[in-house]
Amino acid sequence: MVYNKINKQFYNTILTQAFSPCGIFLITGDIYGVLSIFNLSKIVNPEGNISKEELTPKNRITVKEGFQINSLVSTQQHLLVGGYGEIYAYLWKNIKGSNKNIQPAWSIELPSGQDDFNKAEVNSMSFNETSGILYGGGGDSKIYLFNLERRTILKVLNGHTDYIHSINIKNNQILSGAEDGLVNIWDLRTYKITAKIEPHLNSKIARSHLGKWIGAVDCNEDYIVCGGGPRLTLYHYRFLTNCAIFPIDDEGIHVSNIFDDKVFAGGRSKLFYQANFNGDIVTEIPTSGATTYSVIKQSNPFKILSIAGSSAKIDISLNCMYKDQQLSLY
Amino acid sequence: MVKDPNSSAPLKKKRKTVHGEAETESDIYQKICDNEVKEAKSRDSAKDSKLYYQTLSKIHEQLIKVRDLKLLGPKGSSEQYESLSSFLAEVVINICLIKKLNRMDKLNQVSERDSLNVEKQKCDSIKLNYQNLVYEFHHLLNETNKCLAFKSEFENIELVSFEEFMANAPESITSEFKNLNLNDSEATHSLKLATLEWELTQRKNLAEQCKLLEDQKKKIVSDITEKNAKLNEISPLLNTILKAAKPLQEHLGLSTTEMREEHPLALLLADPLYILYANIVAYKGAFETTLTVTIVGDKDEATQFNEAQEVVNANFLNEDDSEPEFDLPEVEEVVEVKKRRHRKAVQQVDPFEEKKKKLLEMHPLKVEVNFFVEDGPELSVNFSYYTKLKLVTVNSKVKVPTKITANSAKEILAGHNILSELIDSDTGLESPNPSTGYLLKKMGLGSFQLLIPDIGYAYGWAQSVCGINFLTSKKFCEKLSQQNVEITLKIIRKRLANRTHLARQMQQLESNILPSIPKSIDVPMTHVSQLNKWTSISFQEFCQASFTQTLIDEDFVTSSDLFYSVKIVRGEAVLETLVVIKNTYPTPAPLFALNLNYKGELNSTNCDEIRDMERILNVEWDHGVKSSSWLLSAQLTYLCSFLDIYLETLDQKDFPPNTKFIRTISGRNRRRPFVFRKIGTGIFSQY
C-alpha cells in the first residue's frame, strides 16, 4: 500500500553518515539497514531551483534488511559499514557507479554472539591510514583492532562493562565512551588503560534521570569533550580536569565533535549546537529530527556540514551557521 | 661402250616407233604415248635413278677426257681427234639417255600422283564414314542420358509400403513378388509397376465413393432446408396458440410467481437502474442467496412519470431554442406536465425551491439491495436515479443487531462511511458527472455537497454498477455494469464483513477489554498496561492534538477517515493514543499517533522511543484483507506491551519488569526491544 511505504521512510532514522574520498557523495546509514547515496555537487552549487530528485538519494544499497547500520568509515578504497555483528566493505567505484545491485567487496564477522539476538552492533569505527589499522567498538563492550589488509583481528581490548557508544583515536591513544558511564583512555603501545573519566560521579555534570551513559567522545591535542546521559563537558587532556560544562538544553548527547576550535554537539534536542572552548554557545541550528545521531563536516572540495538523526530529513549547512538545504530519504 | 642391257631394248623399240610415226601420225603418237606409259610403269624408279647417276658420272669422265684431249692442243694426232669425236658422240648419247630417263621419271610421277589421288579419296570417304558413326554414337549417348534423366509423375505419387501392398492387393498381382530379390532391378521395377497399377485402381474406386457420398450430402441438405421451412411455418402458429392460451392460464392462476410480478415493474425502471436490477438479479441467480433485491415505488406513478418523460423528450427538439429561458424564474412555464405538480408549485411560491425541485427530479422507482451478515448487521442500499442530473445516488441504512451496544461500534456500522471509499478516494461527496457543477451553477444552487442530505451520496461505483461511465461517450453500457456489479457487490460484502469485525472489536474495547486474538497470530500475552476509554472523535479533534501535526502534514490522514481515541494506562504513566482507521480497513492498517504523559509529554517529535513504537505499529502490519477480525486488537495488544517495555527499561524501580527481553538497550540510538519473538511465552529483542 502506498501509505505503508511512505510511513516506513517517514519513521526512518539515520544513525551515521560519511563523505566519499572525493567529497562529492554523502552516504547515510539508517535503521532499516539501507545505505543511501546522495550527490552533493548540485546542492552545493545550485543553478536555479533544485529538483526534488536531486534532494533524494541517487541510489540505495540494502546491506542487511532490518538490521540497522551503526557506523560508517570512509577509506581511500572502501566504505566500511558497521552493521550488526559484521563489518562490510564496499568499493567506492561501485558506490559511485550506476549499478543498482551493489554487493560488499568483503566483510569481517565479529567473533562474539552467533544467534540473531546476541550479536554486537559496531557502534563506532575509526581508521588509521598510516598503520592500516581499523578500530571498532560496540555491542559486546570490546574494542577490536583489525588489520585491514589481512582482515584479521590484531587485538581485543576489554575494559568496559557495557556496550561502547563511541571511540576516537588520537596519536597513540584511543578514547572510548560507553553505556557504563566510563571514558577510557588507552595507550596503543601497551594496550593498557592509562586513564579514565567518570562524568556521572560529578554531581554538576550528572543527570540521574537520563542515566550515566556516554554517547559521544572526541578530543584534540588539549581537550576532551564528552557527553551522554551526563551533560556535555570539556576536559583538559593533560590534567583530566573538567574545565567547562556547556549550557545545552538536551535530553542526552549523541554527538560531540571538535572541529578546528569549536565544539559541535547534538543529541535529543531541537537544536544543534556549536560552542567555543570557554563554554559559550556560538551557533544554534534547528534540526529536523527529535534526536541528532550523526554530524559530519568537510572543507574540501567544498565546505559542508551535514546533520542527521531520527528523521528522514538531513539538514545541510554550507556555512555552519544556518540550515541551507534539506535532503530527504523519500 | 657400256650399255645397260635393260635400257638398250626400249631404245631400239623407240627407234622403231619413231619410224612408224610417219605412217599413221596420230595413232603412232597415241601408241607411243601408251607405250611410254607402260614402260614408265614397268621400270623401277630406284634403278633409274642409279642409272641416271651413272650416266652423269660417265658424261663427266668423258668430258674430262675431252678436255684433256683439247688441252693437248692442235698437236694432237688424228687418232686423238677421232677419239675426241667418239667421246663427244658418247656424251651426246648419254645425254639422250638422261633425257629419256627424265621423261620416264615424269611419266612415272604422273601415274604415281594419280594413284595417290585415288588412295586419298578412298581415305577421305572412310574418314567421313567414321565421323558419321561418331556423331551417331554421341547422339545415341545423349538420348540415353535423356532417358535416364527423365522424371515421371509416378515418383511423386505416394505409394503404399511393400508390406501393405502385399497384404492388401489381390493374390494374382502379388504372387510373383513373394520371393522378391531386392538386388534384382528388374524385379523391383516390375514391383513398382504393379504397385502403381494397384494404386490407380484403388484411387479410381475411392473417387467413385466420393462422388456417391457427395450426392448423398446434397440430398440431405435439401431435406434439411425443406424441414426448416416447415418449422418456420409452425412458429407463428405456436405464437398464436400461446397468445390464445394466455387468458386461460391467467384464469386458471398458473402464472403468479413473485418474479413475474416484479418484472413489469422492472420494465418501468429508469435505464441505469434497470441495468443494475437485471445484473444483480442475474448475479444472485448465479452466486449468492443471502442477497435480496427489490424494486421500491408505486407502479402507477412510474407509468405516469415515464409517459411524461416521453412527452418531454418529444418536445425536446422544439424546446431547444427556448432552453436558455429555462433558468428565468418563470414558474408557469416550468409546470405543465402534470396537474399534481402544478398544484404543488402554486403552493410553494419560492422560485428557488421550485428550481431545485425541478433539477432534482427523481425517478419514482428505486432499487433496494439488502446484504446480510450472519448474526450481524443488515445493510440495505437504496439506489435512486436523478433524471436531470443524470446521476445515481445511494442511501444506505444498517440494522444494527441488538448485541452491539457500544457507541463507537454502532457508529462504525451506521451511516454513510460504510460505503465510502469502496474504491480509492471515492467518497461520494462530489458528483462524478462533470456537468453537474455547471448545472448547479446555472441554477445558483451552490455546491453539490449541500444537496447530499436531500438526494444521497453519488458514489462513483454506484454509477459504474448502473452502467454509467462519464469518461466515455457511451452513457449506458450494459457490459460496464456487468463487469462492475460482481466486483462491487463483492467489495460491499467484504466491507460489511470488515465493518462487522471492527464493530465486534470496538464493542469489547469500549468496555476496556482487549478482544481475543486467534492463536495462529503471534502476539505478546503478558502485558500489564490497561486499556481505558475507547471513544470516537472527530477529524477536528484529531487535528487539535499537539502530536498529530506531522501525520497531517504528510497527508497520511484525510477527513474521510475514522478517528478514535483510547488511553493506555500503567501506574502514573498514561499513553494517549489516537487511532486513525481508513475506510478501507484492514488495508492499510490503522494508524496510531501516541503521546505519553509521564514526567512530561513524550511523543514522536521529542522522543525516539515513542517514535519507534509508532513506527512499528504503523509500518510493519501487512496481513492483507483476512486480518480484519483481529488486526486492530492485535495492534493495541502490541501497544500495551510496548508501553510496558518502555517503562520497564526506563525505570525498573517504579515499573518492576514483567516482560522478558534479552538486552534492555542497545545501539547508538539506545534502541528498546520492540520486536516480539514467539519463543516460550514470548521474548522481545531489538532485531
UniProtKB/TrEMBL annotation, chain A:
Keyword Nuclease: no
Protein name stated in the entry: THO complex subunit 6
Ranges occupied by WD repeats: 157-196
Xref: InterPro entries: THOC6 (IPR042626), WD40/YVTN_repeat-like_dom_sf (IPR015943), WD40_repeat_CS (IPR019775), WD40_repeat_dom_sf (IPR036322), WD40_rpt (IPR001680)
Alphabetically ordered keywords of this record: Repeat, WD repeat
Organism, scientific name: Hypothenemus hampei
Cited Pfam families: WD40
Keyword RNA-binding: no
Domain of life: Eukaryota
SUPFAM superfamilies to which the protein is assigned, alphabetical: WD40 repeat-like
Protein family according to the UniProt entry: Belongs to the WD repeat THOC6 family.
Automatic annotation (TrEMBL), chain B:
InterPro entries hit by this protein: THO_Thoc5
Alphabetized UniProt keyword annotations: Nucleus
Broad class of where this protein is predominantly found: nucleus
Keyword RNA-binding: no
Superkingdom of this protein's organism: Eukaryota
Region (Disordered): 1-24
UniProt subcellular location: Nucleus
Keyword Phosphoprotein recorded: no
Record GO cellular component, one term: nucleus
Family from the record: Belongs to the THOC5 family.
Name of the protein: THO complex subunit 5
Taxonomic source organism: Hypothenemus hampei (Coffee berry borer)
